[in-house]
Amino acid sequence: MRRSKGIVSPNVNFAENMPFKSKKEAFLGNPVNKQKFIDMLSSKLSESGVRCLKAVDDADLLIAQSAVNFSKEQKTAVIGEDTDLLVLLCHHADPNQYPIIFKSDKQVGRKLKIWDISKTIKSLGEDICNLLPFIHAITGCDTTSRLFGIGKNIGLKKCKENAYFMEQGKTFIHSSSSKDEVIKAGAECIVQMYGGLQHEGLDILRWRKFTSKVVSGHVGVQIKTLPPTSDAAKYHSLRTYLQCQQWINNGQNLDPTEWGWYIQNGKLFPVKSSIAPAPEQLMKMIKCNCKLNCDTKRCTCRRNGLECSAACGECRGINCTNSNPVTAEDLGED
Length: 334
Description:
Layout: H1 24-28, H2 31-47, H3 59-70, E1 76-79, H4 83-92, E2 100-108, E3 111-116, H5 117-124, H6 126-138, H7 152-161, H8 163-169, H9 179-193, H10 202-216, H11 230-249, E4 261-264, E5 267-270, H12 280-285, H13 300-303
Parallel strand pairs: 1-2
Antiparallel strand pairs: 2-3, 4-5
Protein backbone atom coordinates (compact mmCIF):
# COMPACT_ATOMS: atom_id res chain seq x y z
CA MET A 1 0.00 0.00 0.00
CA ARG A 2 2.84 2.39 0.82
CA ARG A 3 4.69 1.45 -2.35
CA SER A 4 1.69 2.35 -4.51
CA LYS A 5 1.63 5.82 -2.86
CA GLY A 6 -2.15 5.81 -3.00
CA ILE A 7 -2.30 5.52 -6.80
CA VAL A 8 -5.47 3.80 -7.97
CA SER A 9 -5.34 2.23 -11.43
CA PRO A 10 -8.19 0.61 -13.39
CA ASN A 11 -8.52 -3.03 -14.42
CA VAL A 12 -7.13 -3.48 -17.92
CA ASN A 13 -8.74 -6.08 -20.18
CA PHE A 14 -5.60 -6.97 -22.14
CA ALA A 15 -4.49 -9.82 -24.39
CA GLU A 16 -1.01 -11.18 -25.10
CA ASN A 17 -0.66 -9.45 -28.47
CA MET A 18 -1.78 -6.00 -27.31
CA PRO A 19 0.90 -3.26 -27.31
CA PHE A 20 1.65 -1.94 -23.83
CA LYS A 21 0.93 1.80 -23.58
CA SER A 22 0.35 2.31 -19.86
CA LYS A 23 2.85 3.18 -17.15
CA LYS A 24 4.33 0.01 -15.66
CA GLU A 25 3.94 1.21 -12.06
CA ALA A 26 0.26 2.04 -12.50
CA PHE A 27 -0.47 -1.18 -14.38
CA LEU A 28 1.23 -3.47 -11.84
CA GLY A 29 -0.16 -1.44 -8.94
CA ASN A 30 -3.52 -3.04 -9.67
CA PRO A 31 -3.54 -6.59 -8.18
CA VAL A 32 -6.00 -7.84 -10.82
CA ASN A 33 -3.74 -6.70 -13.67
CA LYS A 34 -0.67 -8.09 -11.93
CA GLN A 35 -2.21 -11.53 -11.36
CA LYS A 36 -3.48 -11.76 -14.93
CA PHE A 37 -0.04 -10.84 -16.23
CA ILE A 38 1.61 -13.49 -14.02
CA ASP A 39 -0.84 -16.12 -15.27
CA MET A 40 -0.15 -15.14 -18.89
CA LEU A 41 3.63 -15.17 -18.37
CA SER A 42 3.47 -18.56 -16.63
CA SER A 43 1.51 -20.04 -19.54
CA LYS A 44 4.06 -18.76 -22.06
CA LEU A 45 6.99 -20.13 -20.04
CA SER A 46 5.26 -23.49 -19.65
CA GLU A 47 4.68 -23.68 -23.42
CA SER A 48 8.44 -23.18 -23.85
CA GLY A 49 9.25 -26.06 -21.52
CA VAL A 50 9.98 -24.00 -18.41
CA ARG A 51 8.44 -25.45 -15.25
CA CYS A 52 6.40 -22.86 -13.32
CA LEU A 53 5.18 -23.06 -9.74
CA LYS A 54 2.60 -20.60 -8.41
CA ALA A 55 2.69 -19.57 -4.76
CA VAL A 56 -0.61 -19.22 -2.96
CA ASP A 57 0.93 -17.21 -0.12
CA ASP A 58 4.66 -16.68 0.42
CA ALA A 59 6.64 -17.02 -2.83
CA ASP A 60 9.97 -17.00 -0.97
CA LEU A 61 8.96 -20.06 1.03
CA LEU A 62 7.95 -21.93 -2.13
CA ILE A 63 11.26 -21.02 -3.80
CA ALA A 64 13.29 -22.26 -0.81
CA GLN A 65 11.29 -25.48 -0.44
CA SER A 66 11.57 -26.19 -4.17
CA ALA A 67 15.35 -25.65 -4.07
CA VAL A 68 15.70 -28.03 -1.11
CA ASN A 69 13.65 -30.69 -2.94
CA PHE A 70 15.73 -30.34 -6.11
CA SER A 71 18.96 -30.59 -4.09
CA LYS A 72 18.07 -34.18 -3.19
CA GLU A 73 18.96 -35.18 -6.76
CA GLN A 74 21.22 -32.48 -8.20
CA LYS A 75 23.17 -29.31 -7.58
CA THR A 76 20.76 -26.38 -7.42
CA ALA A 77 21.17 -22.65 -7.99
CA VAL A 78 18.77 -20.06 -6.58
CA ILE A 79 18.93 -16.55 -8.03
CA GLY A 80 17.41 -13.71 -6.02
CA GLU A 81 18.02 -10.73 -3.81
CA ASP A 82 15.61 -11.16 -0.90
CA THR A 83 17.09 -11.77 2.57
CA ASP A 84 14.13 -14.08 3.22
CA LEU A 85 15.54 -16.53 0.65
CA LEU A 86 18.94 -16.73 2.32
CA VAL A 87 17.36 -17.20 5.76
CA LEU A 88 14.94 -19.88 4.57
CA LEU A 89 17.57 -21.78 2.61
CA CYS A 90 19.90 -21.88 5.63
CA HIS A 91 17.03 -23.07 7.83
CA HIS A 92 15.52 -25.72 5.54
CA ALA A 93 18.52 -27.02 3.57
CA ASP A 94 20.20 -30.32 4.39
CA PRO A 95 24.00 -29.88 4.20
CA ASN A 96 24.35 -33.61 3.41
CA GLN A 97 22.42 -33.27 0.13
CA TYR A 98 23.69 -31.82 -3.15
CA PRO A 99 24.97 -28.21 -2.85
CA ILE A 100 22.62 -25.25 -3.10
CA ILE A 101 24.15 -22.04 -4.43
CA PHE A 102 22.36 -18.77 -3.67
CA LYS A 103 23.35 -16.05 -6.10
CA SER A 104 22.37 -12.40 -6.07
CA ASP A 105 20.72 -11.08 -9.23
CA LYS A 106 22.42 -7.71 -8.75
CA GLN A 107 26.07 -6.99 -9.36
CA VAL A 108 27.82 -4.32 -7.28
CA GLY A 109 30.80 -3.13 -9.32
CA ARG A 110 32.72 -6.22 -10.36
CA LYS A 111 31.59 -8.23 -7.36
CA LEU A 112 28.72 -10.69 -7.29
CA LYS A 113 27.37 -12.08 -4.01
CA ILE A 114 27.35 -15.88 -3.96
CA TRP A 115 26.61 -18.15 -0.99
CA ASP A 116 27.27 -21.87 -0.78
CA ILE A 117 24.39 -22.77 1.56
CA SER A 118 26.05 -25.94 2.91
CA LYS A 119 29.23 -24.05 3.83
CA THR A 120 27.15 -21.23 5.35
CA ILE A 121 25.25 -23.71 7.53
CA LYS A 122 28.48 -25.32 8.72
CA SER A 123 29.99 -21.89 9.43
CA LEU A 124 27.01 -20.65 11.45
CA GLY A 125 26.15 -23.98 13.06
CA GLU A 126 22.86 -25.84 12.82
CA ASP A 127 21.57 -24.39 16.11
CA ILE A 128 21.95 -20.83 14.78
CA CYS A 129 20.44 -21.73 11.39
CA ASN A 130 17.46 -23.26 13.18
CA LEU A 131 16.81 -19.86 14.81
CA LEU A 132 17.46 -17.70 11.74
CA PRO A 133 13.73 -17.28 10.93
CA PHE A 134 13.20 -15.93 14.45
CA ILE A 135 16.18 -13.56 14.26
CA HIS A 136 15.04 -12.26 10.88
CA ALA A 137 11.41 -11.80 11.92
CA ILE A 138 11.92 -10.15 15.31
CA THR A 139 14.44 -7.64 13.90
CA GLY A 140 12.11 -6.75 11.02
CA CYS A 141 10.91 -8.39 7.82
CA ASP A 142 8.04 -7.87 5.35
CA THR A 143 5.35 -8.56 7.97
CA THR A 144 7.04 -7.31 11.15
CA SER A 145 8.31 -3.87 12.10
CA ARG A 146 11.99 -3.08 12.46
CA LEU A 147 13.15 -2.22 15.97
CA PHE A 148 14.89 1.16 15.83
CA GLY A 149 18.67 0.80 15.98
CA ILE A 150 18.51 -3.01 16.13
CA GLY A 151 19.92 -4.68 13.03
CA LYS A 152 20.28 -8.31 11.98
CA ASN A 153 23.85 -8.31 13.25
CA ILE A 154 22.72 -7.59 16.82
CA GLY A 155 20.18 -10.41 16.79
CA LEU A 156 22.75 -12.83 15.34
CA LYS A 157 25.42 -11.76 17.83
CA LYS A 158 23.05 -12.22 20.78
CA CYS A 159 22.13 -15.65 19.49
CA LYS A 160 25.79 -16.67 19.30
CA GLU A 161 26.89 -15.25 22.65
CA ASN A 162 23.81 -15.30 24.89
CA ALA A 163 22.44 -18.73 25.85
CA TYR A 164 19.41 -17.14 27.52
CA PHE A 165 18.51 -15.24 24.33
CA MET A 166 18.82 -18.44 22.31
CA GLU A 167 16.63 -20.35 24.75
CA GLN A 168 13.90 -17.70 24.56
CA GLY A 169 14.15 -17.64 20.77
CA LYS A 170 13.31 -21.36 20.59
CA THR A 171 9.80 -20.48 21.80
CA PHE A 172 9.13 -18.99 18.35
CA ILE A 173 10.31 -22.15 16.58
CA HIS A 174 8.13 -24.59 18.54
CA SER A 175 4.72 -25.15 16.99
CA SER A 176 3.02 -25.68 20.36
CA SER A 177 4.00 -22.41 22.08
CA SER A 178 1.13 -20.54 23.73
CA LYS A 179 0.43 -16.83 23.35
CA ASP A 180 1.59 -16.10 26.90
CA GLU A 181 4.86 -17.95 26.28
CA VAL A 182 5.43 -16.06 23.02
CA ILE A 183 4.70 -12.66 24.60
CA LYS A 184 7.01 -13.33 27.54
CA ALA A 185 9.84 -14.71 25.41
CA GLY A 186 9.53 -11.86 22.90
CA ALA A 187 9.80 -9.22 25.63
CA GLU A 188 12.85 -10.93 27.13
CA CYS A 189 14.58 -11.08 23.73
CA ILE A 190 13.90 -7.42 22.98
CA VAL A 191 15.25 -6.46 26.42
CA GLN A 192 18.43 -8.40 25.67
CA MET A 193 18.90 -6.75 22.26
CA TYR A 194 18.58 -3.30 23.85
CA GLY A 195 21.22 -4.19 26.44
CA GLY A 196 18.87 -4.76 29.38
CA LEU A 197 19.03 -7.28 32.20
CA GLN A 198 17.26 -10.60 32.46
CA HIS A 199 13.69 -10.28 33.77
CA GLU A 200 14.07 -6.47 33.92
CA GLY A 201 11.00 -5.86 31.81
CA LEU A 202 10.61 -3.54 28.85
CA ASP A 203 8.79 -0.74 30.67
CA ILE A 204 11.50 -0.48 33.34
CA LEU A 205 14.23 -0.61 30.70
CA ARG A 206 12.44 2.06 28.66
CA TRP A 207 12.19 4.32 31.72
CA ARG A 208 15.85 3.69 32.59
CA LYS A 209 17.02 4.50 29.06
CA PHE A 210 14.89 7.65 29.03
CA THR A 211 16.24 8.99 32.32
CA SER A 212 19.79 8.23 31.20
CA LYS A 213 19.31 10.20 27.98
CA VAL A 214 17.72 13.12 29.87
CA VAL A 215 20.63 13.34 32.31
CA SER A 216 23.41 13.00 29.74
CA GLY A 217 21.83 14.65 26.69
CA HIS A 218 21.82 18.27 25.56
CA VAL A 219 18.82 17.98 23.22
CA GLY A 220 15.37 16.52 23.51
CA VAL A 221 15.06 12.74 23.72
CA GLN A 222 14.07 11.11 20.42
CA ILE A 223 11.27 8.75 21.44
CA LYS A 224 12.07 6.40 18.56
CA THR A 225 15.46 5.59 20.14
CA LEU A 226 13.81 4.07 23.23
CA PRO A 227 12.85 0.38 23.49
CA PRO A 228 9.18 -0.29 22.63
CA THR A 229 6.60 -0.41 25.41
CA SER A 230 5.60 -3.83 26.69
CA ASP A 231 2.17 -3.38 25.08
CA ALA A 232 3.59 -2.65 21.62
CA ALA A 233 6.15 -5.46 21.99
CA LYS A 234 3.31 -7.88 22.79
CA TYR A 235 1.80 -7.55 19.32
CA HIS A 236 5.22 -7.44 17.66
CA SER A 237 6.04 -10.77 19.31
CA LEU A 238 2.74 -12.31 18.21
CA ARG A 239 3.35 -11.28 14.59
CA THR A 240 6.92 -12.60 14.83
CA TYR A 241 5.65 -16.00 15.98
CA LEU A 242 3.05 -16.14 13.20
CA GLN A 243 5.67 -15.35 10.56
CA CYS A 244 8.10 -17.93 11.97
CA GLN A 245 5.42 -20.62 11.89
CA GLN A 246 4.51 -19.71 8.30
CA TRP A 247 8.15 -20.11 7.28
CA ILE A 248 8.77 -23.28 9.28
CA ASN A 249 5.47 -25.17 9.43
CA ASN A 250 3.46 -23.47 6.65
CA GLY A 251 1.42 -21.56 9.24
CA GLN A 252 -0.48 -24.54 10.66
CA ASN A 253 -3.69 -22.74 9.72
CA LEU A 254 -3.08 -20.06 12.37
CA ASP A 255 -5.59 -17.21 12.36
CA PRO A 256 -3.74 -13.89 11.82
CA THR A 257 -6.40 -12.03 13.84
CA GLU A 258 -5.29 -14.08 16.86
CA TRP A 259 -1.64 -13.16 16.33
CA GLY A 260 -1.33 -9.37 16.13
CA TRP A 261 -3.47 -8.49 13.09
CA TYR A 262 -6.97 -7.17 12.47
CA ILE A 263 -9.11 -7.01 9.33
CA GLN A 264 -10.50 -3.78 7.94
CA ASN A 265 -12.11 -3.38 4.52
CA GLY A 266 -11.00 -6.91 3.65
CA LYS A 267 -7.31 -6.22 4.36
CA LEU A 268 -5.00 -7.16 7.21
CA PHE A 269 -3.53 -4.35 9.34
CA PRO A 270 -1.11 -4.72 12.29
CA VAL A 271 -2.38 -4.05 15.81
CA LYS A 272 0.09 -1.44 17.01
CA SER A 273 -1.04 -1.21 20.62
CA SER A 274 -4.10 -1.77 22.78
CA ILE A 275 -3.54 1.48 24.69
CA ALA A 276 -2.90 5.04 23.53
CA PRO A 277 0.75 5.61 22.50
CA ALA A 278 0.89 8.87 24.48
CA PRO A 279 -1.29 11.14 26.65
CA GLU A 280 -4.01 12.91 24.69
CA GLN A 281 -2.48 16.35 25.37
CA LEU A 282 0.82 15.25 23.83
CA MET A 283 -0.79 13.65 20.78
CA LYS A 284 -2.55 16.95 19.99
CA MET A 285 0.85 18.65 19.87
CA ILE A 286 2.28 16.30 17.23
CA LYS A 287 1.05 16.96 13.72
CA CYS A 288 2.42 17.10 10.21
CA ASN A 289 2.05 19.35 7.19
CA CYS A 290 3.15 16.90 4.52
CA LYS A 291 2.36 17.96 0.98
CA LEU A 292 2.48 14.43 -0.39
CA ASN A 293 1.31 11.09 1.04
CA CYS A 294 2.89 10.85 4.54
CA ASP A 295 4.66 7.67 3.37
CA THR A 296 8.20 8.47 4.53
CA LYS A 297 9.92 9.27 7.82
CA ARG A 298 9.81 12.95 6.87
CA CYS A 299 6.25 12.83 8.15
CA THR A 300 6.35 14.02 11.78
CA CYS A 301 3.50 11.71 12.78
CA ARG A 302 5.02 8.60 11.16
CA ARG A 303 8.44 9.40 12.59
CA ASN A 304 6.97 9.44 16.10
CA GLY A 305 5.00 6.24 15.59
CA LEU A 306 1.63 8.02 15.49
CA GLU A 307 -1.14 7.97 12.92
CA CYS A 308 -2.05 11.24 11.26
CA SER A 309 -5.00 12.99 12.86
CA ALA A 310 -7.47 15.80 12.19
CA ALA A 311 -4.87 18.24 13.54
CA CYS A 312 -2.57 17.64 10.55
CA GLY A 313 -2.41 20.45 8.04
CA GLU A 314 -2.83 18.76 4.64
CA CYS A 315 -4.06 15.20 5.04
CA ARG A 316 -6.20 15.73 8.19
CA GLY A 317 -5.77 12.06 8.98
CA ILE A 318 -8.05 10.87 6.19
CA ASN A 319 -6.11 11.31 2.97
CA CYS A 320 -2.75 9.58 3.41
CA THR A 321 -1.07 6.20 3.93
CA ASN A 322 -0.40 6.93 7.61
CA SER A 323 -4.04 6.80 8.66
CA ASN A 324 -6.81 4.23 8.73
CA PRO A 325 -9.13 4.39 5.71
CA VAL A 326 -12.42 6.14 6.43
CA THR A 327 -15.54 4.03 5.90
CA ALA A 328 -19.19 4.98 5.53
CA GLU A 329 -19.75 3.66 9.04
CA ASP A 330 -17.15 6.09 10.40
CA LEU A 331 -19.00 8.97 8.76
CA GLY A 332 -22.32 7.84 10.18
CA GLU A 333 -23.79 7.04 6.76
CA ASP A 334 -26.14 4.20 5.93
